[in-house]
Write a structure and sequence with these properties.
The protein is α/β, with parallel strands linked by helices. The protein has eight helices and seven strands; from the N terminus they run ααααβββαβααβαββ.
């Protein structure tokens, strides 16, 4: 029942009203059953319906329910007297890569996984405040997970930045998982723990700040990572200090 209610709307989510109501029905069916067994109260379906409605009104009064949870069913909400303020759409914003502050460098990284687990690759690109590319890299990682690819992309990029003196550094990733792992020091498998500890050490050496960026602003790294995963490429492309042609090297 829960499954069919949840997927009866294209707007399904864990907290959508069509996901919540089946659980309420099951719960109040159980409480009605207990009332019949232990207090001799007659069992009625109307009693279950009234309990569900009362609970929904309590949640609405507590401002726990939002219009998002009623998406696709706002008419039914209005029938119950639930009125939600319509939020005016915000002004559109352009999502693009932004240059770091003068004298700083920016590392954009990404990991790609063809399955989870599957063939994975890690990649990144380092640019200065004028947008000039100083270094780009791709690493084939064989078979692994998306988390391993994302963390490896950050670690490899920071290591290369340290080797080539590209500091101080801002690091941008589009995987919120990486931000959470670094913020809460959330260790899992030993491979993940090892990478997190290396990244934390490199953050101190490079005065680096790791932050989230929208995927649309991380296009170059995303393309390199997908190529690294699908073709299993490993290469580093870097420019010398005089802006001559880029040179390839294998780590």
């Amino acid at each position: 029942m829960v499954h069919f209610w949840r997927y009866s709307t294209p707007f399904h989510s864990d907290l959508h009203i069509r996901t919540l109501i089946p659980f309420m029905i099951l719960w109040f069916t159980w409480t009605q059953r207990n009332a019949v067994k232990y207090r001799g109260v007659p069992f009625t379906t109307d009693g279950i319906i009234l309990e569900v409605q009362h609970h929904l009104r309590t949640l609405y009064a507590a401002r726990t329910l939002t219009s998002t949870q009623w998406k696709g069913d706002l008419y039914q909400a209005a029938v119950m007297g639930f009125i939600f303020r319509q939020q005016a759409p915000g002004a559109p914003s352009i999502v693009r890569w932004r240059a770091p502050s003068p004298s700083w460098f920016k590392l954009n990284t990404d990991g790609s996984s063809l399955g989870n687990p599957g063939l994975v690759g890690a990649a990144g690109i380092i640019r200065d405040s004028a947008g000039h590319v100083h270094l780009a890299y791709q690493f084939a990682l064989g078979t692994g997970t998306s988390v391993l690819a994302e963390l490896t992309a950050v670690w490899r990029g920071m290591e290369l930045a340290l080797t080539h003196g590209l500091a101080p550094l801002v690091v941008e990733v589009d995987a919120t998982t990486v931000i959470s792992l670094l913020k809460f020091r959330a260790f899992g498998k030993w491979e993940v723990q090892h990478l997190i500890m290396r990244i934390i050490c490199l953050q101190q050496l490079l005065m680096a700040n790791v932050q989230h960026v929208f995927r649309e602003a991380n296009g170059a790294a995303d393309h390199l990572a997908k190529e690294a995963a699908s073709l299993q490429l490993t290469r580093v492309l870097h420019h010398d200090d005089h802006g001559s042609s880029p040179r390839h090297s294998l780590p």
